[in-house]
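Appendix C: a fully annotated inverse folding record. The material below is reproduced so that readers can follow the format used throughout the book. The structure is listed first as tokens, followed by the designed sequence.
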């Protein structure tokens, strides 16, 4: 048995809270700004530095080549040693079998080639040895000029990348802090609204001394609204208590006078029944208008069901079958839960009788499912037209005469629906596939302390 659920009741998984939406929007803005800054850096810093680097490399090659060409053999050896020791420049012969890995900067390769000639080679690795290698010719002989690549970093080294990552991390942390500060008043307002919805007006007061003027005005307006609602609720309770007292006193006198003064037994019985009906209607109004806040506790479902079906055991037109899981505990208000089950059983007894036998066969079943307990009360009568199911829980609604030929106030199922919601559950009516009306109650599951 599973209680039917509405397709619109489940929120899509893709829905995000206002905090995460604000955070992601700020994060996108900040990351976009960082990328724009990076592109600006590349346009204004990277290419000029690459061109400057290429000019320095070409100048080193030209100076080294000129010095070697104009030096004699003995001075050439001393010059090569001095260049290697003091300037970090080495010149070695270039072989046709050298394995060359090209330098990764197109700008540097293009600028060096344009200054030294089309046969110039710029490499990042030769024969597995890393460095900055420039291939050039001296009197028809091919040579490599080798220098440290770190001395010519077109992008300024890795330091700026580290700063870029740090800036991005700090920006995201700032975005999270800003989103939290922006959404904190809305979160407090949401909590306060939930307290008002549950009828807990005392716990719904917001701070009226915040520094932000817009938030302060919203908090003041919300507090005044909550105060007015609390006053309206209090006035309603007082009014209902007065109506109950003022109506029941003359009804009691009418019943007494009817029983004492009316001689016709049949007329007296009908008059007494009408008075009893008026008294029951008053009870229904009071039940429906009862405040929403209830105190929930752990209730043994089987005990409540047994107490409710006891009143129907001696009635010849009712057959009740019970199937409950062992030791089912629900989080509910015991008296209210008993009124719910009794109301549904009485509704099934009145309107769920079989046309053939005139007996109302009622089945009660319940089982646990994760954090919930699903209770089903079903009759085997004629059921209700599908288009009327959603209206049965509306106050004062009466369906077709075949099922609702009673003369009540039309509040029974509306009271059940409202009471179940007050206890944090859900109530749904459906037609059974093989006939009859099924009432599905979803209650919070409880555990023993």
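Designed amino acids, in order:
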């Amino acid at each position: 048995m599973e209680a039917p659920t509405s397709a619109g009741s489940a929120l899509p998984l893709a829905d995000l809270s206002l905090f995460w939406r604000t955070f992601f929007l700020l994060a996108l803005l900040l990351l976009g700004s960082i990328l724009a800054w990076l592109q600006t850096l590349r346009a204004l810093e990277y290419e000029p530095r690459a061109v400057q680097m290429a000019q320095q490399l070409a100048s080193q090659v030209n100076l080294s080549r000129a010095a070697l060409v104009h030096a004699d053999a003995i001075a050439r050896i001393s010059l090569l040693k001095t260049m290697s020791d003091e300037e970090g420049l080495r010149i070695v012969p270039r072989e046709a079998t050298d394995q060359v890995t090209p330098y990764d900067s197109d700008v540097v390769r293009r600028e060096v080639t344009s200054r030294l000639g089309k046969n110039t080679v710029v490499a990042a690795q030769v024969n597995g040895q890393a460095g900055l290698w420039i291939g050039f010719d001296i009197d028809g002989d091919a040579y490599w000029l080798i220098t440290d690549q770190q001395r010519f970093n077109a992008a300024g080294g890795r330091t700026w990348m580290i700063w870029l990552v740090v800036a991005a991390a700090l920006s995201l942390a700032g975005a999270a802090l800003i989103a939290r500060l922006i959404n904190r008043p809305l979160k407090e307002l949401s909590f306060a609204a939930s307290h008002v919805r549950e009828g807990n007006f005392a716990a719904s007061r917001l701070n009226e001394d915040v520094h932000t003027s817009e938030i302060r005005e919203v908090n003041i307006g919300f507090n005044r609204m909550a105060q007015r609602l609390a006053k309206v609720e209090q006035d309603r309770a007082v009014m209902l208590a007065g109506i109950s007292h003022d109506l029941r006193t003359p009804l009691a006198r009418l019943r007494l006078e009817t029983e004492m003064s009316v001689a016709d037994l049949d007329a007296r019985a009908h008059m007494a029944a009408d008075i009893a009906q008026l008294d029951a209607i008053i009870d229904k109004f009071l039940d429906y208008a009862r405040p929403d806040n209830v105190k929930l506790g752990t209730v043994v479902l089987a005990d409540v069901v047994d107490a409710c079906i006891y009143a129907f055991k001696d009635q010849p037109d009712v057959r009740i079958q019970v199937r409950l899981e062992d030791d089912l505990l629900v989080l509910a208000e015991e008296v209210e839960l008993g009124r719910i089950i009794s109301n549904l059983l009485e509704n099934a007894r009145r309107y769920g009788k079989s046309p053939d036998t005139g007996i109302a066969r009622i089945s009660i079943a319940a089982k646990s499912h994760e954090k919930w307990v699903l209770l089903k009360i079903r009759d085997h009568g004629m059921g209700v037209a599908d288009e009327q199911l959603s209206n049965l829980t509306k106050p004062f609604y009466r369906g077709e005469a075949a099922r609702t030929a009673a003369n009540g106030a039309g509040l029974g199922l509306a009271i059940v629906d409202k009471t179940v919601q007050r206890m944090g559950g859900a109530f749904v009516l459906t037609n059974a596939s093989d006939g009859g009306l099924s009432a599905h109650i979803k209650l919070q599951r409880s555990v023993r302390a």
